[in-house]
Every structure is written in C-alpha cells, then in structure tokens.
C-alpha cells in the first residue's frame, strides 16, 4: 500500500490588490474542497473518482472560473471546457464549447467511460450529454454579475482581461494605459487577465494517479477559442508516475506541453516530482505565466508558478496540509 496525496488549485495569476474578503473566501473554498478529497481518500475512493468529486464542487461554486462563474466570451455567453485523466492505462476524456452542462468535468468523465472517443466539443458534446441524461441548465445559470462587469471592462479596453500583470491604475482606467500594454499572447496585446481555472490531482493508496481540470477560459475570448485545460498533455496529464493540472496562459501552456513535460522529465531524466515541476516552470513557458499542481505515485505533492500567486491547497497522508495564495 502506498500513501495518498492530493492538491487542488483555483487558478494562477492573482490580482496583487485582491480584497482580503475575496482571499478569505478563496482559501475557505479550497480548504473545503481539500477536506472533501481527503475524506474520500480515507474512504478508499479511487483517485479518478476523487478528482471528479472535487472539481465538481469547484464548478458548482461561482467563486472561480469554471462551471457557474465561468468567464464570458466576446458575445457575453459561456463556453466551458474540461478534461480528466486516469493514470492507470492513460485513459482520458475531454470536452469543449459547453453551454448548458452543469458540471463539465463529469461530462468529460462520461466521454472517457462511455464513448469510443477521447474528446467531444460544442454541439456534439451537448448531444452526448443529453443522450446520457447529464444535468443541464440555461446558459444564464453560469453568468454572474461580477463577470458581466469584467466583460464590460474588457470590451472598453478592447482586450482579453489580464489583471495580475499591470499596475492597478491601468486596470482602473482600462484605457490607453491598458491597451498599450507590452504584454502579449500569441502576438496580440493583452491588458487585464483573471484565469482562475480549477483543477485537482490525486494519488491514492494503490499508487494510482489522476488529474482533472475545468475552466470557462478567458474573459472576452473569441467564440470557439479552446485553451489548454481540455488538452491532454497541455493542461492535464496523468500517467504511471504522476498527475498534473495546469492553470494560467493557455496558449503558453499549450506550446510547452506543460503537464506532459512534468511526467517526461521524471520518466526520462529521473527527476523527483518537485524538481520536475521547477524545471518545466522555468524552462518550458518562455515568456508565458502559469502555474501547476502535481502528485506522484509515491504520495508526494508539489506545485509551482512563475506569477505573483496561485490559489492552491495540498495535503498528504503523513499529515502535511497547506492552503495558500502567495509565494
């Protein structure tokens, strides 16, 4: 029997001026979800079931950017995406472009378990959900007043929202100071950004690793944009040695195949989990900003980020537990 380990995240890249009450709400939610996962692991639930359970909880709470509370597209709608992976056999399921599915992570699990495919998107994914009796709601369910306000700011700045990398004065004006920002994504200028994707990684006592990631994507993103979260090997990966969930600039994470690279350097370079995490954060992101959480089949837990904060929590069977935001 091995040792269990679990980590959760609520996104990398945190507004340095985040109000204290928002920080407290975030840490309370992460603590609740972490304890939910710990209880499930103590009840001998397999890793794949635990990551789905925890991410469902995160999707249901509007605090972070997944499920209810998802970021809005340029048209003011929600297009959600998620993926899940079981390290045993490297089974996986992913979905994109969801507009009515209440819990995208559970539909990703159904794609893995009940379809001949690994990835379904847009109308095909919605049809599959209806065929399997998945709970659906009107798109308005996912849209919060806070996000309506954020979309308005983004449109005024003619930008994707990108808030942790610019001075608060530029965020407040959302005018020339923002639109002239030298920060770019795929060559396009970005002014304000609030990713707050959610994810969970687990290693159970059988040494099985699993990972799950869910997001609404970028505020003011183009309709049809797909980020790293549903892409196996980019935003999510689980294999024999580890499970990884990423968050941050999706385009940079995709280019760096970030999640898979953590496993690869463990497998091919012999690095330990934290060493592997540190290596990919330093060497694989180029100018991008991101973070990730990871567990190993030996019951270790690790995280890393190259921005000013990441909402995260982690725990291991030997009694270690941490919930934090900043360095």
Query: Structurally, how many domains make up the residues?
Result: 1
Largest β-sheet summary? 8 strands, mixed
Unreliable spans: 162-193
- Give the CA-based shape: globular
- What CATH calls the topology is Glutamine Phosphoribosylpyrophosphate, subunit 1, domain 1
Features:
327 residues; alpha+beta; Glutamine Phosphoribosylpyrophosphate, subunit 1, domain 1; 16 strands; 34% helix; 24% strand
Write structural notes for this entry.
Its EC number is 3.4.19.5. It catalyses: Cleavage of a beta-linked Asp residue from the N-terminus of a polypeptide. GO terms for molecular function: asparaginase activity; beta-aspartyl-peptidase activity. The chain has 327 residues and is an alpha+beta fold. It has a single domain (5-140, 193-318), classed as Glutamine Phosphoribosylpyrophosphate, subunit 1, domain 1. The chain has 10 helices and 16 strands. The strands form 4 sheets. It has an 8-stranded mixed β-sheet. The protein has a 4-stranded antiparallel β-sheet with strand order 11-12-13-14, with helices on one face. It is globular. The two termini are 33 Å apart.
């Amino acid at each position: 029997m091995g040792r269990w380990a679990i980590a959760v995240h609520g996104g990398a890249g945190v507004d340095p001026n985040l109000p204290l009450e928002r920080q407290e709400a975030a840490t309370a939610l992460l603590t609740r979800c972490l304890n939910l996962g710990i209880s499930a692991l103590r009840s001998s639930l397999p890793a794949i079931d635990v990551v789905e359970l925890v991410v469902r909880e995160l999707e249901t709470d509007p605090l972070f950017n997944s499920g209810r509370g998802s970021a809005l597209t340029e048209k003011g709608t929600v297009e959600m995406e998620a993926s899940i992976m079981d390290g045993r056999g490297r089974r996986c399921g992913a979905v994109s472009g969801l507009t009515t599915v209440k819990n995208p992570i559970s539909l990703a699990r159904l794609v893995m378990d009940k379809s001949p495919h690994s990835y379904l998107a847009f109308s095909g994914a919605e049809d599959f959900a209806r065929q399997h009796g998945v709970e659906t709601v009107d798109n308005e369910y996912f849209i919060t007043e806070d996000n309506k306000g954020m979309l308005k700011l983004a449109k005024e700045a003619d930008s994707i929202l990108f808030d942790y990398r610019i001075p608060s004065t530029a965020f407040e004006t959302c005018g020339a100071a923002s639109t002239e920002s030298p920060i770019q994504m795929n060559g396009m200028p970005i002014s304000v950004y609030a990713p707050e994707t959610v994810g969970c990684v687990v290693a159970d006592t059988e040494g099985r690793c699993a990972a799950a990631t869910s997001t609404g994507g970028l505020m003011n993103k183009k309709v049809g944009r797909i980020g790293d979260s549903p892409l196996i090997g980019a935003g999510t990966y689980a294999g024999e040695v580890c499970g990884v969930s990423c968050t941050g600039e999706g385009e940079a994470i995709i280019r760096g195949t970030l999640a898979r690279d953590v496993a690869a350097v463990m497998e091919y370079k012999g690095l330990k989990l934290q060493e592997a995490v540190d290596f990919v954060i330093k060497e694989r992101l180029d100018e991008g900003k991101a973070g990730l959480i990871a567990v190993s089949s030996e019951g270790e837990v690790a995280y890393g980020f190259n921005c000013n904060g990441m909402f995260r929590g982690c725990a291991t069977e030997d009694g270690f537990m941490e919930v934090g935001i900043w360095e």
